[in-house]
Specification:
By secondary structure, the protein is mainly α. It contains 22 helices and eleven strands. A hairpin with an 8-residue loop joins strand 9 and strand 10.
Length: 568
Amino acid sequence: MALVACGSATNDTNNGTPPGGGNAPGTTAGSGNTPGAGGSGAGVGTGTGGGSIDNPPPPGECVPGIPVTTQIPMLLNRQYASVVRDLLGVTTVDGTQPVADALIGDADQMTAAAWKVYQDVGAKIAAQVMAGANKSKFISCEPTAADCLKTTVQNFGRKAFRRALTDEEVASFMTLNSATPAGTPAQVAEAILNAFLVSPSFLLIPELNTETEGSAIKLSQQEVATRLSFLLWGSVPDDALNAAADAKQLGTKEQILAQATRMIQVREKTGPFVSTFHDDWAQMNNSSAHWFKGKHDTKVYPDYTDASLAANRKELDAFFEEVAYTNGSFKDLLLSNVAFVNKDNAVAYGLDPSKYTDALTKVTLDSATNPRPGFMTRAGFLSSYANFGATSPILRGSYMAIWLLSVNVPAPDPAFAMQTVSGTFTTTRSYVEALTMVNQPCKGCHEVFNGLGFVMENYDGIGKWQTKDPMGGDINSTATVNFGNGLASKEISKPVDLMTAIAAAPKAQELYAQAWVSFSTGRQPNGNDQCTVNALTKKLAGDGYTILGLLGDLTQADSFRLRVRGSL
C-alpha cells in the first residue's frame, strides 16, 4: 500500500513499491508543479508570470493605453555578459569563469554586495582587455598620442552608453589623466575603461527623453535603438543601428521594423535570444518545475546516463532556434520532428550512439516508426517529467494543463490529502487510475491531468518509445482528453493528434503571445499589453505566421517607442 498526497503540488518522487511489483510510478496524485514567475525580460523588469491550479491567468481584456515601465532598469546578467562580449571581446573573467557567472544574481536595485561585485569584475575585465589581444576594441591609438584618450572616451562612450557623451562627461573621464599619484598613459587608459564599466550609464538602461507625444513620453532615437538591440540581441546597438539613430531614422514604425528585420537575420545574435525565451516559456527557468532535476533507475533504464542531461538541455535550445530560423510557427514547436542528437542522447530516439560524437547533429526523425511531434516528445521533457523508475502521466499531464492550456481545475481538498491504493498493477496507467480516479476529490483534477498524460505513455521514463510497460503490461495510450476553456473533450491515442490539438487551442496561442510580450518588455501581464497580446494571438491562429514574424511585430506596438510615468 502506498501513501500519496491527493491533489498536492509536492514532488512526485516516492520510491516505494506499489502492489504488483516494480518502482512506484507516481506517488503524487496532484500536479507536482508549483507555478512561479518566468525568466527576465529584455532589460526592463522580470518575469512572465503564469497560472496555477489555484490561480489561473485572468481572462484577457484589452485596455487601450501605454503601460507603465521602469525608466532605469539594470542590465541583467546575461545582458552584461553579451555587452562586454560585443564591446570588448570578453567572454570569461580570470580566463575561466563565464562573465555572467561572475556576477551576483539579477536584481532590480543596486545593493552594496552587488556594487562590490561589479567593481571587482569591472577591474578584472579592464586589466584583461588592456593586456590582451582585444585592446584595440577599446583604444585604437597610442595612449601617449595627443587627444588619444579623449577620442577614446568619446568613441567608446558612444557605444557603451548607447548615446553620445556630454562635454561634462568627457571632462569627468579625462580627470583620471591628472589624478595623483600620476599613472602611466596605459594605466590611465585602463582606469578609464574600468570607470566606464562601473558607471550607472553603463550598468543601467536609462530612458531620459522628455519630448511628449499625446499623453506619453516619446523615446529618443538612441533610446529606441537601445530598446531594439536589447530586445533582439540582449546587447548594445551595432554601428548600423547607431548610425540610423543618429540620422533620425528610427522615428516611425516602418523604420523600426526595417532595422528589426535586419537584426533578426543575424542568427548568431538573435538565435540565442529566441532559445532563451523558449526556455522561459517552457518553464525551464522556473525553479519549482521539474526540468532536469531527477535521475533515473539504471536497473529499469539501463541506457540512462548522467551525461544525457546536458545533451537533452542543449538539444532543446538548438531545437527552439532551428524551428524559428526555418520559418517555423508556434504550431511547429509542438509538431516538428527535427531533433539534435549526440552520443549521449541518441539512444532515447532509437539511434545508434556509436554513430555520433559529442557534438549535436541535426536529424529528422521518422514519424512513422519514431513519432516525435514537438518539444514535449524530446528526451529533455520526457525524462524530466518522469519518476525515478517509471513514467509519470500526472507530471506530464499537469504540465500541459497548467502551462500550455491554463485549464482551470478545482483546488485540492485538504481533507483528502493522503489517500491509499492497493492491488496488482501491470502498467503505470492502471496504477495511476486506481490512485486518482476512485475518490471524487482527486477525480476532479485528474480527469484533466491524466488524459493528457496517458496519451504520452508510449514514451518511457527516459524518453524512449515503448509498447510494453516495465511492469509487464501493454501500453494503452488512448484517453479522453479535456482541453478546458470551453473546448470539447476528445478521444486521442496518438501524440501527434494531441500536439495538433494543443497547437490549435486558442488559450495555448494566447499564452504563447502573452509570454512573448511579457518576456520582451519585462512587464507582468496587464490590460494595456493585452491589446498587443490579442493582436498577436489573432495572427497565431492563422497559418504561416512565423516566430520571427512575431518577433518583428513586438516592435510595432506604440508602447515600444513611448513610455508613461506612474507607479509600478
